[in-house]
Every structure is written in C-alpha cells, then in structure tokens.
C-alpha cells in the first residue's frame, strides 16, 4: 500500500533549509578568552608562550633535522623520477593555508594583549632552557 503524500507548509521552510555552520571549539574558546581584561589576556598569553617556547627549544633541533632531511630526500626523489608532484593539489593546500593565515592575522589584531604576551613568553621560554 502506498504512503500518502505529506502536506507541506510553505510558510515554515526553516526546517528544510541548511543550518548555519557552527563555530569550532577553538573559535568558541578564543571568543571567551577575548572577553576577559587586558591583564588577564597578557598573563595567559605569556604563560602559553613560555610553555610553547620551552617545548620548541627542547624538540626544535630534532624537528629541524627531520624536516630538513625529509625535504632534501623528497627533492632528490622528485628529481630522479620516483615521485610526481600534483601541483593542483599543492595549490589547493596553499589556498587553505592562506585562509588560515588570514584568520590568524585577524585574531592577532583583535587580541593584541594576548598576542604580545605570547611572543614575550615564547622568547622567555626559549631563553630559559
């Protein structure tokens, strides 16, 4: 037996339209941090920068060696014909990175106290190890 055709109420189409994209957890957290005072943002940025600086200074040499060696090996493999680079996919990845960089720069301009504290704390962390 066939199912009856449901009645459509054209005045209420909101349940049929696309829902707005929700913000990511990162965006929600940053918006909550931005609501605090300048001194809180400065202290939070300094602490996060210091932790990041200590981590980078501890892992930096190994990561730089691995990344540099990987790039050199990849270039040799490409030159010898073992690897073919799909430049269209590379361009797509770069455009995504460019969008993320623009988003990052908007954040830095909007939260200058947090950003300045992070940079200062980062240099303190690198210098302390």
From TrEMBL:
Keywords: Membrane, Transmembrane, Transmembrane helix
GO BP annotations, alphabetical order: autophagy of mitochondrion
Record's keyword annotation contains Transcription: no
Pfam families listed in its UniProt record: FUN14
Subcellular locations according to the entry: Mitochondrion outer membrane
Keyword Transmembrane tagged: yes
A GO CC term assigned to this protein in UniProt: mitochondrial outer membrane
Membrane topology field: Multi-pass membrane protein
Protein family per UniProt: Belongs to the FUN14 family.
Name of the protein in question: FUN14 domain-containing protein 1
